[in-house]
Amino acid sequence: MLDHCPYYEWKGGWFSGDYYCQKKQENINSTQYETYCKKNYERDGYGECPIYKHKEETGGCFITTIICNIIGLEDKNIYLMLLRKFRDKYLQKNPNTIQILEEYDFIGPLISQSLAQDPNKEQIAREIFINNLVPIFDEICNDNYQKAIKKYTEMVKQLIKRYNLTILELTISSENEYDYNKDYSLYGHGRLQHKIA
Question: Pick the residue with more confidence: 117 or 190?
Answer without folding.
Answer: 117
